[in-house]
Amino acid sequence: xxxxxxxxxxxxxxxxxxxxxxxxxxxxxxxxxxxxxxxxxxxxxxxxxxxxxxxxxxxxxxxxxxxxxxxxxxxxxxxxxxxxxxxxxxxxxxxxxxxxxxxxxxxxxxxxxxxxxxxxxxxxxxxxxxxxxxxxxxxxxxxxxxxxxxxxxxxxxxxxxxxxxxxxxxxxxxxxxxxxxxxxxxxxxxxxxxxxxxxxxxxxxxxxxxxxxxxxxxxxxxxxxxxxxxxxxxxxxxxxxxxxxxxxxxxxxxxxxxxxxxxxxxxxxxxxxxxxxxxxxxxxxxxxxxxxxxxxxxxxxxxxxxxxxxxxxxxxxxxxxxxxxxxxxxxxxxxxxxxxxxxxxxxxxxxxxxxxxxxxxxxxxxxxxxxxxxxxxxxxxxxxxxxxxxxxxxxxxxxxxxxxxxxxxxxxxxxxxxxxxxxxxxxxxxxxxxxxxxxxxxxxxxxxxxxxxxxxxxxxxxxxxxxxxxxxxxxxxxxxxxxxxxxxxxxxxxxxxxxxxxxxxxxxxxxxxxxxxxxxxxxxxxxxxxxxxxxxxxxxxxxxxxxxxxxxxxxxxxxxxxxxxxxxxxxxxxxxxxxxxxxxxxxxxxxxxxxxxxxxxxxxxx
Length: 606
Known about the structure:
By secondary structure, the protein is an alpha/beta fold. It has 14 helices and 16 strands. A seven-stranded parallel beta sheet has the order 7-8-6-9-10-11-12, with helices on both faces. It has a four-stranded antiparallel beta sheet with strand order 3-4-2-5, with helices on one face. It has a three-stranded antiparallel beta sheet with strand order 1-14-13. The protein is globular. Belongs to the peptidase S8 family.
């Protein structure tokens, strides 16, 4: 495999959010970026103006006999159509002698469908390329600004991508269920506001942590979650155990943009839900992360359950996405009574939500270790993060609690192999403020927090395609439709001793890689769905080999190629008389060149 362009090395500042927060984030103004980029727009699907397709009920005769019968049928019907060419198995293309409008074609089809000698009659439709929005950063000229994670899946350049473009072909105009984003809240953004159910709700109880002076309010606006070292050290009783971060993360705005950015508006970025999504911001995290009690209240309210002292949610969510991962277990039998009690609380709340048919996607965490809570709780759909090429991202947690793998970005952070294998991260909406909100912008981020929204968004597309799906069917369909994990031979399999960039298995990273297109196909008809037969994509490159050596990975043996069968010998032809002349030939040589991507965005670590 030819590796994607190698990102330039970049310096990043440490700014840890919570266990499943971003690995790298950047805020840039949309002004100037959009002006440099040219939108790409797909032509809408349309019916052919002068052609129809029919199938003869009696398809057992030869083409000549079929043509004669078809001409007889058309003559009897008095239609200005001629048999153009056979398409096999009794199917024929018909050509009109004059153009007809939609009403005219509908009348022709009605006549043809009423004839017992024809099994089918239809318009000759024009298949179009996969839906492509015209948002400038969707396919940015600079690869560092591109939403590759939302674009086509490609075995050679984006093996980990979920293929949302093909899923949009059948879902982009459909209404989507409400998705609740349980996170740091949301900031105003012109490329997002139209798809947000405002004002949401803020569940951060303590005023100091909420950073709004009052605590809980009917407003999920994110005022910023920065906690400086000086602020922390100045009041240790209050801030003890809270993570210091000199800059605000705008984490909720980034996740909301992945799902609900206004799409096909010739501005900024695209979102998974195209334009018919509804994003409900539920603020559960502030300057000291998210407390378990606030998280559970937020989960229950988001799903439409009553929470004491909080007005009823008039827009209950069908899907929750949680970008947080604690470092403790979700085992109610844990020896630590606090851990066991929190686990029981989570499990009880999860049971309530599942009884209402609510899907919960949660980030596995970013510590290269065991899956964090609540992704490790039974009934939650835990998601690990992949690099653009499909193997595990350097930071992602992994383990048997993971249900599925999706791209989370794997941007460079001066770690092993970054110059060899790092991608450019997940581009989405953000804010340019350092500590308090300022102007809206766009940023590139990495983390399992940004893999989970892709699974949540796919679940929304599935329910849009078939609102009658049960929760069990959505969960089953996501797994049945997944692509097999890629095998990066030189990186070895993921294990406790090989926990950086590595090859996933079903026991470490879930069933496989998210495939949005196939998941939507499943949703349309679960009973009739058959997953395509696919084998693991094997990845080999000089960069992968070099990284495996740097990491000390135990390589996976490369399967020996299947030998081609020996052809039967062909008798040599008799030599032709010599003309006395000479001749020669040259075989063409093909060269595929990939330009190295120049990265225009600065990144900072979250």
